[in-house]
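Example 3.
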Amino acid sequence: MEKRLILRGVLAGAVGGVLAFVFARIFAEPVIQRAINYESGRDAAQAVLDKAAGMAMPADDPDIFSRTIQADVGVGVALIFFGAAMGALFAVVYCVCLGRTGRLRPKPLAMLVAAAGFLGMYLVPFIKYPANPPAIGHADTIRQRGFLYLLMVGCTVALLILTVWLGRRLRARFGNWNASLLAGGVFIVAVGIVMAALPPLGHLAANHSYGNHLTETPQPLTDPSGRIVYPGFPADALFSFRLYSVAAQLLMWTAIGLVFGPLAARLLEPNASAARPARQPEPAGA
Amino acid sequence: MSSVSGSRETSTPLVLPISRSVFWLVGTAVVALLVYYFIGVDQGALSIFGSDMHVHEFVHDGRHFLGFPCH
């Protein structure tokens, strides 16, 4: 049974990944291109300043893949494989939750597990460390930023698991509704403490030379006399990028829940579908 | 082994015995996390192929868009 559920999870995840890719290709890629154009222009302005100051010119990064490959193929492969991997993880959690989280039927359980995946793997970590387009992020902090992001994801997932466990424990005493509310409230407070404890990216030691900022979003570039020679990162592009990033993940996780739910219901409740004519009941059990 | 309850009132579907399916559940989770790692993290915070940047550059846009730190 678990093999069949996992297969359906991977399938649902791949469907979600394809949808996210189509969405990204239409909406996100123009914003990513604007961000890359900003970065190129800023690098050129910085080079002029450095040259005037008599500093050595850094070598350009070689382009291994063209922008066309990155924007048409690379992003598709990344999103579809990410979707399939998330679908597989989703199915594993679904198998564990099945029958252990109250009297939830297959389809509502699928939507709840998908919502937990969206929250735990993306949305809650995003609130602390939001997605950034190219041009935002200093190369010398990538290690710390990577670990901090994974730590945030890990803490969120661990707290979600604890929340479900706590909700189950409180149920006998407070009833389903109040137990869920209490556990959810504990989750929000605990996540808030984690967010407050982790440092803002702008405060990392390597970023002190950039001034006291919360994030690594590029500030205006100034010449030695303090005149602005290149603007800061465009706020509208940053907002669009983040909005599309959230929308794509929401699309992906919703698709996982909506595709997986009916497939699982047919597998787990063959009697329900046998009530309708002209449908062969599938044998249960693996 | 698994039994499916057909009646709607007792709709707790079935409980998969974890001990029997642990191989598939853990194996799937490990493979999924490996894919997650290569799309989101490799050749960034960590790198198992040294300083090569092919994976990073290929999934570059997706990595940014999925919320992972990049560059």
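Residues 1-11 of chain B have pLDDT under 50 and may be disordered. The radius of gyration of chain B is 20 Å.
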